[in-house]
Amino acid sequence: MTPRPEVKKRELGLKLRLSPRARAVVRAFMEARHFAPGFLLSCGVLPEVSESVTERLHRVIHHLAGRRFEGRRHVRALHAEIRKVAPSEEAFDRVETRLTQVVAAETTSAYLFGVAVGLAMGTFPARIRM
């Protein structure tokens, strides 16, 4: 008689329950997998080549962050904090523009790193000597 799957997992030291953050990561990954084929078909593998495609990439990222990682709440809190220290609407806009540029650079870097990891994973078994 073979043990139940949960017994096998417990024996392997795998946790059966995930933290809320871990569940959010898994759900975001599954949702990202849903968006990925259409994005690649319409935009190509390296969307940064086209600036119009960059905006679409950022919309997908913001959607996932907002749904799975409370991104909208964090953005509202950040705006509130900037407004407290920005002496004018113009100063607020300058800070927000710089912050948007930082987030865009990090998003692009994360995307490209993800593509590179995905490509490396595709060739990974061929690199292992047995």
Which SSEs are present, and which pair or pack?
Elements: H1 5-12, H2 20-43, H3 51-68, H4 71-85, H5 89-127
Can you walk me through this structure?
The structure is a single chain. The longest helix has 39 residues. This protein starts with a helix and ends with a helix. Helices cover 80% and strands 0% of the residues. It has one domain. By secondary structure, the protein is an all-alpha fold.
Task: Give the CA-based shape.
Answer: globular
Largest sheet: none
The ordered string of helix (H) and strand (E) elements is: HHHHH
- List segments where confidence is low: pLDDT < 50 over at least 5 consecutive residues: none
In total, the number of domains comes to: 1
Terminal Cα separation, in Å?
32 Å
Return Rg in Å: 20 Å
Q: Number of DSSP strands? A: 0
Mean pLDDT: 75
Instruction: Figure out the total of helices.
Output: 5
Structural class: mainly alpha
Estimate the strand proportion: under 5%
> What proportion of the residues is helical, as a percent range?
over 70%
State the oligomer.
single chain
Short characterization:
This protein is mainly alpha-helical and 130 residues long. It contains five helices and no strands.
Keywords summarizing the entry:
globular, 5 helices, mainly alpha, 130 residues, 80% helix
